[in-house]
């Protein structure tokens, strides 16, 4: 029985302890946490099960371009994918591309790296590693150039599979440590091959590895649930990224748990993979789909042409990030507002009618309005989408409800962290209420712990007097990572002695057991693109700008950029006013557009000089004449209390975000 059959998302188990809520579990797994996927305990087992059940189903689709405006997909079946993956895995063995496996905490890690966008070969290598017990180490551009040598040194990788777009980046790396081989998915010019050779790195072509594998196919490895399936390097808040070690068990139980969340996947489902596979959300989605015999189509490689890919693939499952969903929302609304006459009336009536049925029963389809009004918006997603999912950051309810109505499909909101294998909570397709992340997966349990300094308590109640515990979200169970590679102290900071992972997010448990994300404990936030920002790091850069005395950097997880409140030095502003030829009191000068522009330009310049990335640099600022200390926004050690600063400057923050996407 799936969770869709229960009106509760989660139920309390055991006794409540002081300072924390009850422990909550999925209603279907109150006695034992889920530890398998249809009896399988490894990703290898999931894939082999599908090969047996759906051998001739389309498994993997690759886009082939035959002309400037001509392209189509070619497919490999599950059996064909298995055969290629066996050749690839055997080729890695036959060429000895993992000459020095690493022993770590009693487990042999046979690590293989990859540095590439999503493509057919990415997933084939992933499956090959699964079949032969290797551990995948994905790299990606947004980690930053300085992170690559750090990861190469930490993992002592011998072999890295790369695409042509990653060649230049890798050649810029001065110290490649133990790297001996690169395997290129694309043909390399001879001068690039020579440059690698000058670094002591031998270049193989992908086809060479396949051919080497055909000479001798090796038996599959014996893999266990606690074996490390992959690393996922998270962008560091300060310093270098951390290597999150994720087990087969983590992926298996998240993938297996979807049915207990009321989600049905079928062998006929088709998925377009364009979100980065190095990120755990995309990886776990693909794992789940492979487990149900679905078809995975790789995008064409250009996110700006994703609409073309959608029309070619016509996906039935669509996963994206809030930023793209908001762009679609804005585009559809803008187009609708330009329509006049009876068409405008029809759109408004159709939307109002569907909103009514959505909020009074959770219905997202309507026989009349869907064909009469919303056919075009549905076709923009390919015409076959039956399920939308967002999971990297919270979304506003009005956007979610609007998209449910105009795309004519349920919209699921999820919540999870890399350390929790991407999926810990998800909403139900038939839930008429948006703005929460639904219920806990069957493989974990959760609780919230009091955060008294922010006035969040497990004894809190809502306006009706119903218990609505609030506090830091903590999870425990089979979804949790094995630890940060070679960083045991940081692992201990994340997971306590009782096995609870402290998320740093503040949650509210609604009466039906669903969870709503309402705040953040840790001084790090996520923008709508899913990018984490460490505000203290950014503030440290801006404090180097001449004339700035105090800075508060803020980011709304439903927005795509950061903003800042700055307190300037009064003498500097007065001197600046003379230079700019403007007059007024200090308070008036702080509100002057020319003064604002000066500080903003200097902050951008300093940000670039200090190598802040585009997401870290603020896009708007507000100049506050009064010190944060005078406003009572600092602690007794003069540290900024962010939750108080946010409340105090809420009006100014909202004004800076006004009209943003």
Automatic annotation (TrEMBL):
It comes from the Eukaryota. One of its GO terms (cellular component) is membrane. The keyword ATP-binding applies. Keywords: ATP-binding, Nucleotide-binding. GO terms for molecular function: ATP binding; long-chain fatty acid-CoA ligase activity. Residues 49-485 form the AMP-dependent synthetase/ligase domain. PROSITE patterns: AMP_BINDING. SUPFAM superfamilies: Acetyl-CoA synthetase-like. This is AMP-dependent synthetase/ligase domain-containing protein.
């Amino acid at each position: 029985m799936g969770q869709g059959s229960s009106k509760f998302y989660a139920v309390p188990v055991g006794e409540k302890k002081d300072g924390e809520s009850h422990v909550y579990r999925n209603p279907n797994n109150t006695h034992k946490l889920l530890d398998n996927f249809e009896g399988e305990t490894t990703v290898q087992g999931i894939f082999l099960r599908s090969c047996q059940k759906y051998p001739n189903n389309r498994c993997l689709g690759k886009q082939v371009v035959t002309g400037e405006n001509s392209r189509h997909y070619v497919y490999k079946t599950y059996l064909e994918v298995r055969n290629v993956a066996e050749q690839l895995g055997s080729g890695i063995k036959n060429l000895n591309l993992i000459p020095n496996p690493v022993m770590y905490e009693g487990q042999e890690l046979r690590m293989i790296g990859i540095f590439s966008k999503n493509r057919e070969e990415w997933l084939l290598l992933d499956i090959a590693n699964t079949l032969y017990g290797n551990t995948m180490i994905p790299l990606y551009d947004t980690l930053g150039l300085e992170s690559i040598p750090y990861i190469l040194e930490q993992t002592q990788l011998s072999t890295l599979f790369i695409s042509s777009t990653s060649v230049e980046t890798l050649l810029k790396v001065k110290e490649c440590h133990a790297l001996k081989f690169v395997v290129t998915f694309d043909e390399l010019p001879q001068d690039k091959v020579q440059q690698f050779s000058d670094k002591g790195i031998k270049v193989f072509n992908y086809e060479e590895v396949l051919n080497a594998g055909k000479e001798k196919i090796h038996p599959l490895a014996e893999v266990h649930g606690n074996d490390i399936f992959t690393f996922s390097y998270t962008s560091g808040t300060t310093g270098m990224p951390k290597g999150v070690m994720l087990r087969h068990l983590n992926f298996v139980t998240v993938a297996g748990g979807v049915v207990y969340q009321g989600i049905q996947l079928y062998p006929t489902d088709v998925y377009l993979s364009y979100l980065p596979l190095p990120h755990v959300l995309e990886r776990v989605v693909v794992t789940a789909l492979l487990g149900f015999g679905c078809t995975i189509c790789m995008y064409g490689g250009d996110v700006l042409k994703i609409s073309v890919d959608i029309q070619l693939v016509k996906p039935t499952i669509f996963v994206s990030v809030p930023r793209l969903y908001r762009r679609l929302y804005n585009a559809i609304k803008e187009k609708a507002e330009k329509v006049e006459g009876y068409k405008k009336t029809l759109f408004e009536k159709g939307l109002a009618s569907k909103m009514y049925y959505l909020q009074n029963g959770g219905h997202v389809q309507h026989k009349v309005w869907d064909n009469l009004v919303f056919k075009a918006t549905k076709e923009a997603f390919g015409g076959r989408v039956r399920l939308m999912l967002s999971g990297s950051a919270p979304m506003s309810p009005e956007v979610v409800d609007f998209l449910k109505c105009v795309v004519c499909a349920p919209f699921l909101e999820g919540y999870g962290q890399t350390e929790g294998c991407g999926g810990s909570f998800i909403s139900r397709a038939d839930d008429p209420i948006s703005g929460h992340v639904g219920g806990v997966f069957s493989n974990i349990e959760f609780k919230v712990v009091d955060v008294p300094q922010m006035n969040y308590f497990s004894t809190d109640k809502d306006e009706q007097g119903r218990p609505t515990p609030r506090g830091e979200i903590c999870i425990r169970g089979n979804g949790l990572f094995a630890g940060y590679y070679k960083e045991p102290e940081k692992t201990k900071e994340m997971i306590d002695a009782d096995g609870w992972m402290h998320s740093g997010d503040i949650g509210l448990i609604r009466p039906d057991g669903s969870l709503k994300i309402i705040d953040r404990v840790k001084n790090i936030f996520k923008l709508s693109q899913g990018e984490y920002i460490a505000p203290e790091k950014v503030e440290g850069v801006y404090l180097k700008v001449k004339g700035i005395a105090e800075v508060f950097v803020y980011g709304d997880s439903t927005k795509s950029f950061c903003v800042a409140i700055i307190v300037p030095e009064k003498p500097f502003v007065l001197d600046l006013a003379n230079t700019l030829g403007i007059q007024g009191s200090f308070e008036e000068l702080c509100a002057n557009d020319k003064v604002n522009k000066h500080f903003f330009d200097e902050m951008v310049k300093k940000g670039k000089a200090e190598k802040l990335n585009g997401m870290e640099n603020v896009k708007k600022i507000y100049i506050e004449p009064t010190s944060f200390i005078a406003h009572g926004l600092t602690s007794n050690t003069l540290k900024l209390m962010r939750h108080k600063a946010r409340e105090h400057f809420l009006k100014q923050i909202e004004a800076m975000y006004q009209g943003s996407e």
